[in-house]
Amino acid sequence: MKTTEVTDGVWRLSANIHDILFEAMWPIPHGFSMNSYIVKGEKVAIIDGVCDWDGVPETLFDQFDQMNVKPEEIDYVIINHMEPDHSGWLKDFKKIRSDFTIVTTKKAKELLEAFFQIDNNIQIVASGDTLDLGDGRVLAFEEIPNVHWPETMATFDTKSGTLFPCDAFGSFGAISDDAPFDDSVSEEDLAFFEHEATRYYANIVGAYSAPAKKAVIKTESLPVKIIAPGHGLVWRKDPQRIIDDYKRYAAYSKGPAKEEITVIWGSMYGNTEQGVEPVVEAIKGEGVKVNVHRVPDTHYSYILRDVWNSSGVVVAMPTYEYKMFSPMAVALDEFGRKKAFNRRAFRFGSYGWSGGAQKELDEIIAKYKMGWEFLEPVEFKGAPSEADIETIRRRGAELAVAVKAWVSAEA
Ligand code: FEO
């Protein structure tokens, strides 16, 4: 990969990753980028880093060479966030240079020792602290805890107006060397990255939507001209676009989200499945967009993204061994962990000798205090009757009407 100049005195270094599950659980079919930044005054700082997977630190070091920056010229390593996708390279960097100063938060210091056995040359900073690199370049620090771990901070280059917020304002999706900026990609590509940003947000940041909202407020109090995140595009033409996106994503946690309904279904022998098309058609008939996913066929990463964007959810699953069809329980549990709260919802499904799915559904909703408001469920023994299908259809339409009313009331 090549280095790219973000603005005068600021360069982006990056490595793209493919063919893994991010955090060992989230599919990344389009890859993702890990961005680091070199900031030069009279002294040189590197902000954020990369993971330590095979070849990745070397990709970063190769970019030092491209810039004619020698490791020994890097005075400060600024760690905004300790998750190893940004800090893992440290042990490789220590092999080629051992006497750099790490600038980070008090909380991160604990993790530096725990992950990398580093306990010296650490300069602790807190909100409001600054670091003068010389030549008029002063870095200011702002803690943004829990975006995405408790120790996280953002770094702001007061000279260029560049904000380095690490995970905040990031997205999935590998970045081309030739087009790493919002001003160097097409509108179609921007829409792609925003789409990937929604899934990234729901999967990685969603559970921390309250802190994310505070981080957005802090960002808006700074004279930000460029947003240079740890993952994804650098926003220098229209940083407000990704700020506004993140405002919306954070607000979706408590709802309403978009005027959309996500239908999630699982069926063992085709009985619950008989209600899926009628409910989808009924929702569409009310003019509301529907996303349809079958479990376990679709990874819950994608379902979570659509639930995050939707104000309404239909869950259709049978009872299985006196409880819920297991893949649906896994998906719902994840929605609870990620705080997809306050949806309008409807559930239907089949049972054989006994029910049990509804009880487990109620337990999950209560356990995570999800606040989903359900219409009366439709449960049927074996196959659904014509009357059951008619009721499912009617409930789908009622749900769509409720979603439209809710979204327009909050608009
Ligand atoms: Fe990109 Fe929370 O690490």
Can you put this structure into words, describing what you see?
Helix 5 (187-205) packs parallel to helix 7 (239-252), helix 5 packs across helix 9 (300-309) and helix 6 (209-220) packs antiparallel against helix 7. It contains twelve helices and 22 strands. The two termini are 44 Å apart. The chain has two domains: 4-252, 4-Layer Sandwich (Metallo-beta-lactamase, Chain A); 258-406, Flavodoxin domain (Rossmann fold). The strands form five sheets. It has a seven-stranded mixed beta sheet with strand order 1-2-5-6-7-8-9. It has helices at residues 56-66, 84-87, 90-96, 106-116, 187-205, 209-220, 239-252, 276-285, 300-309, 326-337, 357-367, 386-410; strands spanning 4-7, 10-17, 21-22, 26-27, 32-40, 44-47, 74-78, 101-104, 122-124, 130-134, 137-143, 153-157, 162-164, 226-227, 258-265, 289-294, 310-316, 319-320, 323-324, 344-351, 373-374, 378-381. The protein is of the alpha/beta class and 411 residues long. Strand 6 (44-47), helix 1 and strand 7 form a beta-alpha-beta unit.
